[in-house]
Structure formats: C-alpha cells, structure tokens
User: Fold this.
Amino acid sequence: MAAVSVLGAGSWGTALAILLNNNGHEVALWSIIEDEVNLLNDTRENKSKLPGIHIPDEINITNNLKEAILGKDMLVMAVPSKFVRNTANLMKEYVTKDQIIVNVAKGLEDDSLYTLADVINDEMPDNPVAVLSGPSHAEEVSRNIPTTCVAGSKDHDIAKKVQDIFMNSDFRVYTSSDVIGIEMGGALKNVIALAAGISDGIGFGDNTKAAIMTRGITEISRLGVAMGAETQTFAGLSGIGDLIVTCTSMHSRNRRAGILIGKGYSLQEALDEVKMVVEGVYTAKAALDLSEKYKVEMPIIREVNEVLFKGKDTKKAVEDLMIRDKKIEYKK
Ligand SMILES: NC(=O)C1=CN([C@@H]2O[C@H](COP(=O)(O)OP(=O)(O)OC[C@H]3O[C@@H](n4cnc5c(N)ncnc54)[C@H](O)[C@@H]3O)[C@@H](O)[C@H]2O)C=CC1
Ligand SMILES: O=C(CO)COP(=O)(O)O
Assistant:
C-alpha cells in the first residue's frame, strides 16, 4: 500500500481521493481554500460537487501543504489547469525527488502553450511526472461505475506504479508512453465538447454532433502528431474515448456550458451556471495559438474561439464550417 496525497478538492480530486482510500492507500486530500477544507471536514461530503457521496473518515482533509506532501509516495495534482503552475511552485519547497507527481488536470498553459506535465516538469525538474486521463466523470467514478483510464509516463515503471495504485475492479487503468498524445487529447477534447454542446443548444441533431466529434478528433490528432504524439493515441481512451464521454454526457461541464451558449447565454452566464471549472474555455485560445505555431488547420477550434471571445453568432459559426472549401477525407 502507498501513501498518496490528492491536491485539489474539487469533484475530481474528491472522487480520486475516495477511490484511492477504497484501494487501501493512506490518503490525504489538500485544498488551498481553508473554507472548503473546513466544510469537507464538517460534513464529510462535497455537497456542491458530489452530493450524496460520503468521504471516508480515514481520508485526511487538510489545508496544510507541508503535511499533505511529507512522506507521500505519490502526489496527484487535481487542481484546474490555470492553478497548476502556482500549486507546483508552492509544492517544490516540500517535495523530495523520489515522489511521483501525477497530473490529472486537462488543459494547456495559456502563455507558454506548455502541456501541464511540462509545467510541472518546469517547476519540479527532479521529480518523475506522469499523467492519468480518459473518459472518467467524477460523478460516475465516485459511484463505482466501471471506468477506464490510461496512465502515461515515458518511464514504463512509473506508468506501471500509477496503474498499480489506481486500478481496481471498477477502475481499469492501461499504461502508455505517449504522454504528449494523452495530454493533447485530454486538453483539446474540452474545446470540441463546447462545440458539441453549442450544436445541441442551438437544437441541431445527432448528425451535427457526430460530425463535430469526428472532425474534432481529426483536428486534435493533426495538432498532436505535429507536436510529436502518436496517431494511435487519439483512437484510445484519452483521445476518442474522452471525446465521446465529454460530447455526450450531461455530467460534462464543457458540454453543459456549450449548450447554454448555444441557447443564447453569454460566456459568463454559462460559466456562472455550470459553477465547476470549464477547462475548454481556457484551452481554446492556447489551442488556436498552437495551431498557428505548428501550421495545422483547426477550423472547429477557430470557430469556438470566435464564438467565445468575439461574440460570433453560433449559427453563423456552424454555417461557416459547412461552406468551407471542398476537402478530401481520404485519397489513396
Ligand atoms: N470533474 C471531473 O469529472 C474530471 C475533471 N478532470 C480535470 O480535473 C481538473 C479539476 O477539475 P474539477 O475537480 O472538476 O474542478 P472543480 O471546479 O470541481 O474544482 C476546483 C477545485 O480546485 C481547487 N482550487 C480552487 N482555486 C484554487 C487555487 N487558486 N489554487 C489551487 N487550487 C484551487 C479547489 O479545491 C476547488 O474545489 C480539471 O482540469 C478537469 O478538467 C479530469 C477528469 C474528470
Ligand atoms: O474530462 C472530463 C471527463 O473525462 C471532465 O470534463 P467535462 O466535465 O467537461 O466532461
């Protein structure tokens, strides 16, 4: 058994802390927000994000970062992407180089255009860094609904350790060495989910959503491969698997925000309504910047940016996607 800390007590951090506790590990759950820690300790429930799910008494819920880090074998970073650098920066005072850092957040850093594993590496260069990603809504994982994920590390032994620590009969974990592919799939599917939600919110049908998902994974894999990822990863759990769950589930924060925007809500109104982090909004701009940097065409991601940040009419965005130049899907 291992000693593990989960950093970030939102829906995903809470669900993973419970899973790790159920796996028999010694678990701490840290949040930077003192009020959040007090509420979780008082109620042993994350009422606003995972209502009805009991947080076992053995989990040490703490606001003390030093206490959360010291003596742990693994540190799981479950804070939203925009807080990853600052959290990693705070952590480095206490981490020792044998501790494995596992990133479970999905996003990109907007200025540097770094993936989150790269941000963590940048802050804690001596630590082994892994990622865990896949179609895995906290609402279902916390109810032990069968789920599959992939643990990625360039070092197979590290990926295997992550697999061993997280896996149980309801949570199946594969390993992969394609870290960049896993991260790009996880980050960019959120932008495509916004588009799928917008289409649903407008009242378009299943045909439209299937088109967005299929052309969406093409865009994601085109950029990912240009950045060094393996094509095959985008056909896997962290690619098409996560895209399917995000574009079709009512648990999806990104899809829900998209639906509201498609119905005419402003971006801010949609974010206020969803309450939890909508990562696609933060990733959209970085994805567009990366598409320009790598000279990769990403029309759906471009239109999502137009709608989110330039107030473009959602129906006009879809129309502009439909009347683009004629293209070949495949030619031998
Ligand atoms: N919710 C889910 O089902 C899944 C979420 N993820 C990813 O996990 C990450 C976290 O998502 P959620 O748990 O859904 O978010 P959330 O919105 O439920 O939780 C956010 C949490 O971040 C922490 N936080 C807030 N401000 C902070 C700050 N300034 N510094 C450090 N920590 C702060 C707090 O503990 C807060 O509860 C995201 O990148 C998301 O894409 C990945 C897989 C599943
Ligand atoms: O990444 C996630 C599930 O795999 C969570 O993001 P969404 O809630 O937008 O689907």
